[in-house]
């Protein structure tokens, strides 16, 4: 994560994603989380980088873990445009680091305070990471048990031929049967690998599969640090049993930690299942999609044409989205219903400030999902400026 933080600053992404945009798309309930000024944002990233180094070296570890978690999560909450499963995973792992004493050996904290050193660790400090990793894989695998993935091999039938220019393996990407092979292998891998890593007899083979799987996907697809993070994190399954304490302690502090972690994992189990509360096709409506570990299941694109109408005069006109959004924001907004509404509210406020009388905002949004013909995503006649977002299902999203 230290390298990732430095890379984020060096490539100018702080400026591009958080400073230059004139609007952001906050998560529901976190509208109060806003971007800081330019100087403050760079200071924030600098503090986060220092905290990542602190975790890596075990220097002022507990403070470093808490600071990194707060900084990283704050940055991720600013704009859901940039939501990625692996960023969410990093935030969760950072949260777990706040609870575990990972600085008791081979750390600068032990060098500063030798009394911290211990040659054993509690079993739960390993199990929390194993369980978190297992949840990610298992839910990702269950999500792949669909006709679209296993029978139609979508979106792999779109993605793999596009990789035909890769060195050595490129020509293989055009084999007609390869998308189905990848689909079934990917599903079986995700569902089974947590259990295979947990069993000593299959652990080494399972880890080799982890390296191959994430190595191949990392080479073929632009998925950032996720492959490296998972390859590194799954090493926790190889903990030396000779240094693991199996006993239990009943101190008040440990009881609080236990209660907190139980609540945390209950939430982690339930949140990915919330999509069951919503009608319609999940990948189309995206109601309950985020935070549900649906990894690489769709190729989705859209175009959104917004019309603003002055209620007093009847004058109307189309909006140039690039005036308000950067390219990535526009791309993500054009296929995600809640972001479409947030943008419509922004347009309403903007044009009202310019003198329009309670502007009416509508949008014609065409979306294609996994190679299917484009279809209207939302009701083009609905005044989006008067739509309220919440955790309920939205009747203005059209069925595909």
Give the structure's gist in a few sentences:
With 400 residues, the protein is of the alpha+beta class.
Helix-strand layout with pairing:
Elements lengths: L1 H9 L2 H7 L18 H20 L3 H18 L6 H13 L10 H5 L8 E2 H21 L3 H4 L5 H4 L18 H21 L1 H21 L5 H8 L10 E2 L6 H19 L11 H4 L14 E10 L6 E3 L8 H7 L3 H17 L6 E10 L5 E2 L24
Parallel strand pairs: 1-2
Antiparallel strand pairs: 3-4, 3-5, 5-6
Summarize the structure in words.
The protein has 400 residues and is an alpha+beta fold. Helix 3 (38-57) packs antiparallel against helix 4 (61-78) and helix 7 runs antiparallel to helix 10. It has helices spanning 2-10, 13-19, 38-57, 61-78, 85-97, 108-112, 123-143, 147-150, 156-159, 178-198, 200-220, 226-233, 252-270, 282-285, 327-333, 337-353; strands at residues 121-122, 244-245, 300-309, 316-318, 360-369, 375-376. The strands form 2 sheets. It has a 4-stranded antiparallel sheet. The chain is built from 16 helices and 6 strands. The chain has 3 domains: 1-118, no CATH class; 120-278, no CATH class; 299-386, no CATH class. Strand 5 (360-369) and strand 6 form a beta hairpin. The protein is globular.
Alpha-beta classification: alpha+beta
Main sheet overview: 4 strands, antiparallel
Approximate strand percentage: 5-15%
Unreliably modeled segments: none
| Number of H/I helices | 16
Give me the side-by-side strand order of the main sheet: 4-3-5-6
Strand tally is 6
Tell me, what's the shape? globular
Helix share, percent: 40-55%
Describe the oligomeric state of these chains in a short phrase. Answer: single chain
Mean pLDDT across residues? 93
Number of domains: 3
Sketch the topology as an H/E string, one letter per element. Answer: HHHHHHEHHHHHHEHHEEHHEE
Through-space gap between termini: 40 Å
Cα gyration radius (Å): 24 Å
């Amino acid at each position: 994560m230290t390298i990732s933080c430095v890379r984020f600053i060096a490539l100018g992404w702080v400026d591009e994603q958080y400073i230059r945009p004139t609007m952001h798309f906050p998560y529901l309930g976190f509208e109060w989380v806003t971007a800081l000024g330019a100087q403050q944002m760079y200071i924030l990233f600098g503090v986060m980088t220092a905290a990542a180094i602190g975790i890596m070296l075990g220097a002022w570890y507990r403070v470093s873990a808490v600071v990194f978690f707060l900084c990283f999560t704050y940055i991720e909450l600013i704009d859901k445009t940039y939501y990625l499963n692996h960023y969410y995973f990093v935030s969760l792992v950072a949260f777990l680091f706040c609870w575990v004493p990972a600085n008791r050996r081979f750390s600068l904290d032990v060098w500063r305070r030798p009394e911290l050193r211990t040659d054993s660790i509690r079993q739960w400090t390993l199990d929390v990471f194993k369980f978190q990793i297992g949840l990610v894989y298992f839910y990702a695998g269950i999500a792949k048990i669909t006709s679209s993935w296993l029978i139609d091999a979508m979106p792999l039938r779109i993605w793999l031929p596009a990789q035909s220019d890769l060195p050595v393996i490129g020509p293989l990407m055009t084999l007609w049967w390869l998308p189905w092979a990848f689909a079934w292998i990917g599903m079986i891998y995700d569902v089974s690998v947590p259990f295979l890593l947990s069993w000593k007899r299959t652990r080494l083979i399972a880890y080799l599969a982890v390296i191959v799987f994430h190595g191949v996907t990392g080479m073929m697809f632009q998925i950032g640090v996720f492959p490296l993070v998972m390859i590194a994190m799954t090493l926790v399954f190889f903990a030396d049993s000779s240094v693991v304490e199996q006993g239990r302690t009943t101190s008040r502090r440990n009881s609080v930690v236990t209660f907190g972690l139980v609540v945390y994992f209950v939430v982690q189990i339930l949140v990915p299942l919330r999509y069951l509360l919503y009608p319609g096709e999940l990948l189309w409506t995206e109601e309950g999609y985020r935070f549900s570990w649906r990894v690489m299941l769709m190729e989705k694109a859209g175009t959104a044409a917004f019309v603003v109408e002055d209620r007093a005069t009847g004058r109307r006109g189309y909006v140039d989205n690039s005036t308000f959004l950067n390219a990535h924001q526009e791309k993500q907004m054009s296929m995600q219903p809640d972001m479409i509404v947030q943008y419509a509210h922004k347009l309403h406020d903007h044009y009202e400030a310019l003198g329009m009388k309670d502007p009416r905002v509508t949008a014609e949004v065409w979306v294609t999902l996994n190679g299917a013909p484009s279809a209207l995503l939302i009701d083009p006649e609905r005044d989006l400026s008067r739509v309220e977002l919440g955790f309920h299902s939205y009747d203005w999203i059209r069925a595909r």
